[in-house]
């Protein structure tokens, strides 16, 4: 590549010698079968080298295909390169919706699913749990379709890009719905941690935001609900008197509507609107997901490090994800709580701080596959009971390691 491509944050420069944008599945198959190393580049919203390669990068944005709605089975088939911000309004116009969305609508469906990306909701799984079927272009150019219930399906959904190119996905849909978003301020950590279940059950999606500048109080609680806004006064929280951005001091215009105003699901579930730069823009991100049983211990560990974390932090978000059976999902076999960090764009400082956080968190913490972490590969894979099964699946689908890269090699693949 004459000019080196970067990820969204700019902290990762891709090593690939070329970026290709095939215009057909046949052209894509020709690239895959003729190159020793290939990786797919999605919306670039990863903060490590999971999408990188020393070979050829492939973008799916030019592949033909439109969403196809199967109303009787309540599914929609989409091309792998589509973004949620494109799919969601298309679905809504036809009277359908997804069960949940991530905080950013800018991300691609295939990339989000492959890394186990999620929204928030104690009864709602990660975005990968919406997948009912997928189509893979494997290393030999074959097209393989897997659907829910097939023996390999649970291993192939959160795939880290290691099994092939996801050219199409089928997602579960439901009738379109409205949802309202209310922001609360001033909740006390002691009260919340004493009854975390009640707070998390107060809406369909609940996010706790803190800058850790005050280890006793939570800056904001965002509640997205299909019903009435809850009363959180028992936690010391009161509704905000105007729109808020999760990061203090930033204009709230990029954020989705608040103040309890009902609106379409796709315009409330994300934190940010598609038309704006997501989040802060110049930032780094890390996230660790812990089993629900370890959530209080994990938050208390962060409270103990608050003076170390706060100087480097833009905001920390705490949210819940329902358990699933997808082998490499961070919520595999356990309801989970995500501890998400949006850092200032200071790679050296964050690199020094992350090992302190990882030592303080419970040993059950699983790093998000697409974000910054410093745990070694063996420590990460030991936290996934089906890791060896995934490795065997990878051996069958990509024996030549055509989709391998340095990220996977650090994990023992």
TrEMBL record:
<dbReference type="GO" id="GO:0080049">
    <property type="term" value="F:L-gulono-1,4-lactone dehydrogenase activity"/>
</dbReference>
<dbReference type="InterPro" id="IPR010031">
    <property type="entry name" value="FAD_lactone_oxidase-like"/>
</dbReference>
<dbReference type="GO" id="GO:0003885">
    <property type="term" value="F:D-arabinono-1,4-lactone oxidase activity"/>
</dbReference>
<dbReference type="InterPro" id="IPR016169">
    <property type="entry name" value="FAD-bd_PCMH_sub2"/>
</dbReference>
<feature type="domain" description="FAD-binding PCMH-type">
    <location>
        <begin position="11"/>
        <end position="176"/>
    </location>
</feature>
<dbReference type="GO" id="GO:0050582">
    <property type="term" value="F:xylitol oxidase activity"/>
</dbReference>
<dbReference type="GO" id="GO:0016020">
    <property type="term" value="C:membrane"/>
</dbReference>
<dbReference type="InterPro" id="IPR036318">
    <property type="entry name" value="FAD-bd_PCMH-like_sf"/>
</dbReference>
<dbReference type="InterPro" id="IPR016171">
    <property type="entry name" value="Vanillyl_alc_oxidase_C-sub2"/>
</dbReference>
<dbReference type="InterPro" id="IPR007173">
    <property type="entry name" value="ALO_C"/>
</dbReference>
<keyword id="KW-0560">Oxidoreductase</keyword>
<dbReference type="Pfam" id="PF04030">
    <property type="entry name" value="ALO"/>
</dbReference>
<dbReference type="InterPro" id="IPR006094">
    <property type="entry name" value="Oxid_FAD_bind_N"/>
</dbReference>
<dbReference type="InterPro" id="IPR016167">
    <property type="entry name" value="FAD-bd_PCMH_sub1"/>
</dbReference>
<dbReference type="Pfam" id="PF01565">
    <property type="entry name" value="FAD_binding_4"/>
</dbReference>
<dbReference type="InterPro" id="IPR016166">
    <property type="entry name" value="FAD-bd_PCMH"/>
</dbReference>
<protein>
    <submittedName>
        <fullName>Xylitol oxidase</fullName>
        <ecNumber>1.1.3.41</ecNumber>
    </submittedName>
</protein>
<dbReference type="GO" id="GO:0071949">
    <property type="term" value="F:FAD binding"/>
</dbReference>
